[in-house]
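U., I forgot to send this yesterday:
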Amino acid sequence: MKLRSNIDPSATTAEVRPLNEDEFRLFQRLIHQEAGIFLGPSKKELLVARLRRRLRARGVRSFLAYHRLVKHDSAERVKMLDCISTNETHFFREPRQFEFLEQHVFPAARAAASRPPLGLPARRRPGLRVWSAGCSSGEEPYSLAMTLLDNFANWPIEILATDLSTQILAKAQAAVWPIERATEIPTAYRKRFMLRGTRRQAGKMKAGPEIRSVVRFERLNLNNDTYPSLGLFDLIFCRNVLIYFNAESREQVIRRLLNHLGPDGILFLGHAESLSGLTTLVRSVGPNTYTHAANLEKPGSRSVPVPRSHARTTPGILDEVSVTR
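Result:
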């Protein structure tokens, strides 16, 4: 179907017609269907601001015509979702959860991997699989990489970082930020894991090869019915993502995430997110931190290990740019 044949080329410089209520409802349904994101009535002007550039780029004068276009053009539909995605983040966000990791989860993982008395086998082999769902521009998975590599020398570490937006994933893979962002990173980690740009890269910093080697990026839509080929994870971070979903979609996403959480795994949510009403599925064990409801003992007790790693794969190493310490 040649949708472009009905588009007026002069529309690239023409004014886009205002979005009416019927058209807004069409986009509400489409975006919820595609991404699970619910746009309330107050988001109408935000939608216009986010999509107006795409209409002009495609030479479309009305939102109704653009809706018809994205219904039939999968590539443009991805670009539309890129536009409406929110990607606010920073390094070491939710510091109480990083404290919870170091004080409770990491000691349990080490204890479970150590050989017990009498020569019995360890309860798990060394290694951790972590999923950063809704990773945005990479600050979260790279923060996790620094923390894990610092605490688990010589352990295999794999971090899968996924997001809906292809544009933001490209930024995350590039792993370059303004040097001002360095203040968000603890000094010891900054010196060990980050690179400072020089000459043409002056004023920038980049994630170093050690942390880039344990992170791999994939596009994944959390609204999909299933997340195939992911395996199980010891830790899943899905922070400040569910706030954009309505109650029904939120529960569906949580159920799918739990399908990929190991038997004693830990799920981390954002500070503004709650799983009230899902107590049959999960149990709170820390600050916006949950495990399967069937787990009766709290992390930090000597009998609770982080689960065995599953379906481990070898992560790729990203290319370097001309930056130095």
